[in-house]
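hey so i finally got around to running both of the ones u sent me last week. sorry it took forever, my laptop kept dying halfway thru and i had to restart like 3 times lol. anyway pasting them below in the order u listed, first the sequence line then the structure token line for each. didnt double check formatting much so if smth looks off just lmk and ill redo it

first one:
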Amino acid sequence: MNAARRPATFVRRVAAASAAALVALAVGSGGLAGAGPNDAGPNDAGAGDADAERAAAVARVERIGTLVEERYWDLSVVPVSWDEVRARARAEAEARAHAGPEAIDAILVEMVDALADDHSRYLPPSEVDEVRDAFGDLPCIGVFGQAATPEPGGAHGPVSWRLVAGDLSVIRVEDLARAGTADGVRRAVEAAERAGAEAHLLDLRGNPGGRLVEMMATAGVFERGFLWRVVTRWSLPLPYPALGTPATDRPLAVWIDGNVHSAAEGLAGGLQASGRATVFGPGPSAGNVEAVLPFCLRDGSQLWIATGVLAPIGAPTWLGEGVRPDAVASGEDLPRVVRSALLGR
């Protein structure tokens, strides 16, 4: 995995969908016709082992292939034929089954990477462990009835704030992946208003996104109601609300740039579309708003599938377009521009 796809970077771009059905797949097993317990010599036993290895390897490929086929948001936009990718992976798995599970992991990584989006990934068990070390257990849907649940934690996420000119708070949110981000924003708003803030600037520059639930709860610090929908191929559009009770009704702006991705784009765009926030920045955000659904597999691996795309209620998706600023502005002096726009000072 290259540096751009290391697990920590990947997870910060994950926007995990909050509602989906449990997917259960069954893989049958069988023996060689006509073979009895006393019919196999040493060579036959070796052949049987090889057949079992090939069957297990192919079953892993088919399991992943079926999940993608059933749940990917739109295979027609993928730059390759999924049927061809799946057939090639199956043939490679049959040929390399003898090399062990790690070799099949490599085939599955390459198979899912062929989708060529910025979200869908196959994570072997070793990389799942890296993700867990960095972020704790992330909730996902169990395949074969096995599911992971998040561990409780007390972190308040990657949030900091400062006061500009005594009355504008600049609340910096570095990602939406870590649990507690929304709580951190809520605490920052409350502390800033105790210190004299009369307006807020949410600084999302460079934010790679994260979990939809953190996006929804962070928006809920400022707004209520349904702000988004997730467009999928396999279901009606799913509406998503802001979560929680707003902590403030003071003027709000959001600071974006071209490196704002995924759930962070949804946060900025949802607050903009509802009329709650004015968006500032040098240009549109990344336009990378697939919503990801994670599946936990029995062997300890995980499959993260882009199952839909985020869009505002009643308007087109931001996919490929990005959230466009209401006011084109940039530079470290932007907070003073925002202060003038929001407070007239």
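and the second one:
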Amino acid sequence: MVIYDSVLKKKVPFVPVSDNEARIYVCGPTVYDDAHLGHARSAIAFDLLRRTLMALGYKVTFARNFTDIDDKIIKKSLETGEPIEAITKKYTEHYLRDMHALGVLDADISPRATEALEAIVDMVQKLLDNGCAYRSEDGTVWFDTSKDRQYCSLSHRCGEEEDTQARISHEEGKRHPRDFALWKACKVQDVCYDAPFGRGRPGWHIECSAMIDRYLAYKDKAYEIDIHGGGADLFFPHHENEAAQTRCATHKKLAKYWMHNGFVNIDGEKMSKSLGNSFFVKDALDHYDGEILRFYLLGTHYRANFNFNEEDLLASKKRLDKLYRLKKRLYGSKCGTPEKHWQKEILDALRDDLNISRALAAIDEFIAKANEHLDATPKDKGFKASAIGTIAWIDTLLGIGGRDAYEWFHLGMSKEQIVQIEALIEARNEAKRARNFAKADAIRDELSDMGIQLMDTPQGTVWERVQ
């Protein structure tokens, strides 16, 4: 497989640290609010990476953290009066609920900052002991960037014009503008934990380094993990700082490869809460099924910026409908062995830095060829079984196409409409059992007038809304 390494700024062959194994860490959410489309984009991008590596035969261990102690969380608690634990529990559950709706697989490891305090304290202590960190008068522990000769070797963004940290007003106790807090000293109305170097709480950057070292790292290799991922906005300073901490604390490199997904724009404007156009996943799910959103977000290459608009979303849904229309033609067929040709075509595309456009084009071609074959030989059971197997394999790889084909075309209908339709279908079935075929036909005509098409199968009567 070939992936784009953000540090080298080019595609490189993926050669794992340990044979046939891939350890991946992706920065997760700070749980003080609901997940937005930026979170969804990142989660789906790295879910695709994970699924692709698994399909290629790698043993994948995937970790995504939850930041459950942070300035934003504390601020929200003070503003609302809600306990911090209640806030973080609620929004962690909301995040997982939304990701499940989008078909994102659960992480193998989901560390939380408050559960990793021992690992965090140990790493801060190591950095103090080896002189790469210092303690200011108020008790805050700072990372000394001047002690790391490789600082900014990841992003190369430490020039005066790009150094966002240097533009921040000089915080009291810092020796250098780029230094950052490893452990924040306890203040009034703060959350504090005991540590040998004083009561306080972790800085944001240290938690990821400590969690990787404790829960995921190769202990006998030059790199702690294979791939570190996240949004492009995290590359600097967050990932830069993570890499520096790990180098200085463990004398190892944090990750062999760094991967970053692009931003999400809404109608061309970069998503930002300050701009008032943040689009929560839960709001999108109120209007669109999670699989439709997944397919739409999946359809743009992960490194490209994504422009979210409803016109493109609806066009994407129609493309996905074609897969389900094929599946409907195969309804009731047994699931057989996937067609190797299409497996190769689709996987070869994804081997190339997750080239989703090429992969989806291969799926479109599979659908077209399958329909042609069914038109010519509609009773070919072996072909039907293979086609169903291919669709099931696509679902495993991409997280699409796994639903019941007829239920898919019920989407957008109210519960009341579905109850009414199914009641009429049951009345038709009863009429047929009573051999009252005139009544059964009348009910079918009534449903047809409502835009409902019926199909009687060995598994029972299924229906679709004809659009």
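quick thing i noticed on the 2nd:
The chain is about 45% helix and 15% strand.
anyway thats it, ttyl
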